Amino acid sequence: MTKSKLLEMNNVGIVVESLDDAISFFEEIGLTLEGRGMIEGEWAGQVTGLGNQSVEVAMMVTPDGHSRLELSRFIKPRTISDHRTAPVNALGYLRVMFKVDNIDELVNRLTKQGAELVGEMVNYENIYRLCYVRGAEGILVGLAEELN
User: Fold this and answer.
1) What are the tens digits of pLDDT across the range 1-24?
2) Which CATH superfamily is domain 8-79 in?
3) Coiled coil: which residue ranges (predicted)?
4) C-alpha closest to that of 93 among 80, 79, 83, 107
């Protein structure tokens, strides 16, 4: 039997409470809404193990078209836990990082819309300027600007 090989990373998924707020936040960063719709029924629950479910999903895509972020709002069953304010060293915590071309301008725009800078903006070995921002839904996003 031939060993399976990885072809690509399809997407990262994040469960949110407000799909509209999360879409707006990620659009401000530079992602584009690729599609939005409902996923419902027993077949979906067979994949997730949640049984009969109803989930509204929005797929966001990066400008290069290679990476996607799947935002999901569970209607049924309801969400059972909330990790949005967990510290970055919490087990299973999710963080997404994006490479940007003007980190100061983007952080300024995001904070004007209610996002919060987590910690400080740092220079990593004169290669990147990095920071974490906690945005809509308390989602933690890393931002990196390559230094030339």
Assistant:
1) 999 998 888 899 999 999 999 999
2) 2,3-Dihydroxybiphenyl 1,2-Dioxygenase, domain 1 (3.10.180.10)
3) none
4) 83
